Amino acid sequence: MEKNILTQMLQEYDSFTRSERKIADYVLEHQKETQYISITDLSAECEVAVSTVSLFCRKLRLAGFNDFKLELARAALPAGSRAGQLAGEVLPEDPPAAVMGKVLHGLQDELNNAYHMLSEAAVTRAVDLLRGAGQVICLGQGNHSVVALAAWAQFSTTSPRFKTIQDSHMQTVVLSTLSKEDVVLYFSHSGATHEVLGAAEIIQSRGAKLILVTRFLNSPASAYADTVLLCGPNEQPFQFGSSSAFIAQLYVVEVLLSEFVRRDPEEAERNRQSVGKALTQKCV
Question: Is residue 118 a contact partner of residue 127, using CB atoms and an 8 Å limit?
Fold first, then answer.
């Protein structure tokens, strides 16, 4: 029989410290919510240190907090179900027409959520930084590197100051040579990976600015950011880089781009005319 993390927590409850019992009590009472929460928010809810949450997960013989959320989601699965059916949007018996409709409505809901999550003040601050930057480096890791690439592709038609780097080693090289006039636009759903924290520390040490696009306002990387743009769905632990998260972040990119162009439409038009003329030479 596969282990059930909830059963394991109950069996080992008496061996937990007072702080660990606070975590266990919260998780047992808010099982569904904990599947979506960040380690920083959980520590705040339980009034314990982030390190205590990490130790709690390791005490349960898990690799870390993400592993804990995976086990928590697995414990909630009914017998015979599959991870891909966790959200329940698309069922095995659904015909293609139903799949098309469910996906459409789901993405429409996510775009609406992204609109309501995004702060006008944060957008204004972000575009202020972009317009005043010497150069803007668009970055992301894993699946979110695709969004960074898309952001660079969009912005590069309006201004030559935008760049991107896909290789992680070269990202470190470029970050290590930033100036105080430079800005990094970083996409990270969790805001809690080793990569984004390492990048944030380098950016801060160089005196450059960080615009963070993330789901969690209290993520560890948010503490380094000059402004935080919130967006993204409550992803199930089994959803690694969902389309909903991509679309929410691309919505933020489009908002930033539109506001960036609105501030100086003449410059954007000049650059777009130049790009368009050059690209026509590539058409048959």
Answer: no
